[in-house]
Predict the structure.
Amino acid sequence: MDEERGLEHMIPKSRSSSSSSSSSSSAAGSPRSGLIEPLLVNNSRLNTTSQIAIVGAKVCPIESLDYEIIENDLFKQDWSSRGKAELAQYMILRWAIALLIGLGTGLVAFFNNIGVENIAGFKLLFTNDLMLNHKYYKAFAVYASCNMVLAIAAASLCAYIAPAAAGSGIPEVKSYLNGVDAPSILAPTTLFVKIFGSIFGVAAGFVVGKEGPMVHTGACIANLLGQGGSEKYGLTWKGFRYFKNDRDRRDFITCGAAAGVAGAFRAPVGGVLFALEEAASWSPSLSLLSCTSMHVTCN
């Protein structure tokens, strides 16, 4: 009897006596149906949010890239209307950008090596002097403190300036070459954090290498040069308007990634193999373009 009274109190009072009697009889026969019925009547539990608001609340920032050129009549007419001087300018700029990508990646690789050697050398030299003076505890404290400061600096750069620079960078570059355009993976801030974060991380004694960061760094340099600078910071050159498309951008980023491998190991053949295996196996001309960037990087 107590259970039946409890079920009757759960039914809304606005209902008619006939419906309440039928509900009580059904509740007596089947208690589960009486428990479900008030939940169906209560409209406050229904989602009244507009579907348009739900869809437009958070737009996914990840987009796909279209590398294919649509060779229709309009495309053929556009290329046939271009003069020989304009086509020659396109080809010359394409090879010039490949050379600049190799040069820029090589300079960054040299800067990384100099930075790591100097920071780690100063740390070890200072610690060695303390150990020669039999100040072992102080030497340990100085060594641990230096590593901690370098680790905090590298982590802070990734956490507060460019979270996209965290990790090795190879998965991000490979995903871009496969057609996934994630936000900020090739931004100038990501390039800045990648350079200094890798220097601080290696100098801190972490078990990290230079291949992944250099691949990501080379891709960022290629994206910056191939697009004629950064539109966000107002540093662009109109002469690179020919390369404002996904296909040319993909080709330059392939050159940058391969040049990063060559700069990390000082091995142009290794960069060529990386390009053939991961980046440019479908295009012989792109492999030759990547090979040019890698030789400039190593030289």
Q: What stands out?
A: The domain at 86-298 is CATH 1.10.3080.10 (Clc chloride channel).
